[in-house]
Q: What sequence folds into this?
């Protein structure tokens, strides 16, 4: 597993060093609007703990953190009416996954048809 870089931009958001447009938070998770939205709804949901990606979070986070994260995602989807029309959840990881920020985050996208999952090369 890659080591966690505490200088990544989401760690700075969690420490309050840079601003973010917060949607909501729980004891263990934070949701905020992506700075470059790719859909009418584009939120990023992150754990407050230091995890590099989905695999790291799933392997090391406590059951409480994992439940908190997923229940929060469910509440967000309900709150934004994403469940009725559909949405996409994306977790990029590492080099091949095109992950830019090495703090685990789930993109929640919706509000319009999103097209194919991957663009064809
Ligand atoms: P990923 O490629 O999965 O690591 O996605 C990183 C996402 O973080 C991109 O969609 C960026 O637009 C978004 N992003 C980068 N900096 C910020 C920021 N300061 N506030 C909100 N979103 C950001």
A:
């Amino acid at each position: 597993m890659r080591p966690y870089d505490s200088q990544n931009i989401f760690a700075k958001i969690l420490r309050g060093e840079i601003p973010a447009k917060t949607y909501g938070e729980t004891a263990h998770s934070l949701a905020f609007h992506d700075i470059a939205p790719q859909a009418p709804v584009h939120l990023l949901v992150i754990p407050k703990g230091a995890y590099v990606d989905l695999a790291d979070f799933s392997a090391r986070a406590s059951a409480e953190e994992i439940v908190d994260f997923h229940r929060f995602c469910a509440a967000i989807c309900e709150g934004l009416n994403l469940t009725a029309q559909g949405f996409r959840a994306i977790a990029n990881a590492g080099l091949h996954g095109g992950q830019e920020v090495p703090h685990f985050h789930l993109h929640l996208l919706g509000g319009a048809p999103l097209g194919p999952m991957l663009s064809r090369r």
Notes: Strands lie at 22-25, 29-33, 41-47, 87-90, 106-110. Residues 26 and 72 are 7 Å apart (CA to CA).
